[in-house]
Design brief:
alpha+beta; 2 domains; 25 strands; binds zinc ion
């Protein structure tokens, strides 16, 4: 354990190169080529027209106090098309909430749900809220529409439909509600409906003044318990309930078909075949020589049984690798799912593995991943989890980074104790390869994360810790489900 520390200073210089999450703007034009391949889904223009006609902006934006507004930015570049049946095509448009306070924008975290617009052909639009299933505040399956519940509000007639998703399969969720012949809510449900069911849904908000962040949570459908408080800087932040939302179900209406679910841990690890991909990673832009260099690096990375396991899960992510001579730091660019390295870095397994782990975190966290880019809240969670995955996964390999190398503030009291506790944690995961077998793991992880906040290299460790951001990628890799020859 002590020998490890000798490497810190010599390896420190390497850290400077491997700083990673960039925050590029996403104003990429929509790729029209995408539409040519499909039969006759509505055009982007038609959907944007429908979006504008429905006045969605005004209907879903809201204010949380006199000076703070939440706006939803439609992510048109992330529009996904689903063919439901011969006559029905769904288009799913993710919505990104942004807080506006005075002239500043503030970070909005949707703790346990995602919002989107679902277009049915180019005729009907639904406002969708997908709530992840949680146990003790931990989301077990971060894949969208995989394990959780979905509500769809028909924006034309005001009717709401509820669904339950289990392993990516959606079905109608039976809800208990109050039956009535009169409308209970201000819902715009049309008068042709004779019998209604009214269901109350509860949403919660908290504003952390210290970090300037807003958090939202939804209670599971049909429940309204206050969630437990969250950490906000040096204090705790308590949730307050926003106005309860009455959702109205017209008993005679038929529910639209549930959108097709994704993710789950189907986990068969199929490679996205065809094209110039290497284990599911698109390397088509590389020269022949760069490809050779990369293949050697990838083979080295796959010598880590855990990282090989991770790459199998990552093979459906659509990860791309680009070698760019001009590139100064290895980066993972979230909006194009691309790792960019220069021709030296492409030979460095530690650099490439570092960015691959970020790609895997992106796959698991989903569309809010970029909320945790460098300097933003939760970046420390991302980098700490990444470091821990890499330290455990590369144990014993020639190219492993020194365990504890990112702990750099040795002038602070308690430094050695903190590093030793971290190294112990690494060794315990190496020994079991299964997080669920480690007693008090969550507490030890949280303590180590807090220590890293105090003693870690400033470029990784100085951002606000988000207690709601769980190490899902770590737990997915070290779940005891893979066998490695020792
Ligand atoms: Zn990084």
């Amino acid at each position: 354990m002590k020998v490890i520390k000798l490497f810190w200073y010599t390896r420190l210089i390497l850290i400077v190169f491997s700083c990673c999450l960039t925050f590029l703007s996403c104003n990429k034009d929509f790729d029209n080529a995408y539409w040519i391949k499909v039969q006759n889904p509505p055009t982007l223009k038609e959907l944007q027209g429908l979006y504008d006609n429905l006045n969605l902006e005004d209907r879903i934006n809201f204010e949380i106090d006199d000076s703070t507004f939440i706006r939803y930015k439609p992510e048109w570049s992330d529009l996904k098309v689903q063919f439901i049946n011969d006559s029905t095509i769904y288009s799913i448009l993710p919505l990104l909430p942004v807080g506006i306070r005075g002239r500043e924008t503030i970070v909005v975290n949707l703790s346990n749900y995602r919002e989107f617009i679902l277009f049915e052909n180019n005729e009907v639009a639904y406002y969708g809220k997908y709530i992840y299933q949680e146990t003790d505040g931990i989301i077990h399956d971060p894949a969208f529409l995989s394990n959780g519940t979905l509500s769809l509000d028909n924006l034309l007639n005001g009717n709401t439909s509820f669904y339950s998703y289990i392993n990516g399969k959606g079905s109608k969720l039976p809800v208990a509600g109050q039956r009535s012949a009169n409308k209970m809510s201000s819902s715009a449900l049309s008068s042709e409906c004779a019998e209604y069911l009214t269901v109350m849904t509860c949403d919660w908000t908290t504003y952390c003044h210290e970090t300037g962040q807003v958090f939202f949570r939804l209670s599971p459908v049909g429940t309204c318990l206050p969630p437990s408080e969250i950490r906000c800087g040096n204090t705790w932040s308590y949730w307050t309930q926003r106005a309860p939302v009455m959702q109205t179900i017209c008993v005679k209406y038929e529910d639209p078909a549930p959108p097709i679910g994704g993710g789950g841990d189907g986990g068969s690890g199929e490679n996205g075949g065809g094209g110039d991909t290497q284990g599911g990673i698109d390397i088509s832009s590389l020269t022949e020589e760069e490809k050779m260099l990369y293949e050697e690096t990838e083979n080295e990375i796959r010598e880590s049984c855990a990282l090989n396991h991770m790459l199998q899960k990552l093979s459906t992510h659509g990860l791309k690798l680009i070698v760019d001579r001009q590139s100064g730091n290895p980066v993972y660019v979230f909006n194009t799912k691309t790792i960019i390295v220069n021709e030296y870095m492409v030979t460095r397994s530690d650099f490439v593995a570092h960015e691959m782990i970020h790609a895997f975190q992106h796959q698991n966290i989903g569309s809010t991943f970029h909320h945790h880019a460098q300097g933003l809240p939760g970046n420390i969670n991302i980098e700490f989890e990444r470091m821990l995955i890499q330290d455990v996964a590369t144990n014993g390999l020639e190219w492993a980074q020194s365990v504890g190398v990112y702990f750099t503030r040795s002038d602070r009291d308690g430094f050695n104790f903190a590093v030793d506790a971290y190294i112990d944690l690494v060794e315990d995961i190496i020994a079991t390869k299964d997080i669920s077998l480690i007693p008090n793991f969550d507490i030890r992880y949280r303590d180590a994360l807090q220590s890293f906040n105090r003693y870690g290299h400033p470029s990784y460790a100085d951002s606000q810790i988000l207690t709601t951001l769980q190490p899902v990628s770590l737990k997915m890799i070290f779940d005891g489900s893979y066998n490695c020859p020792e």
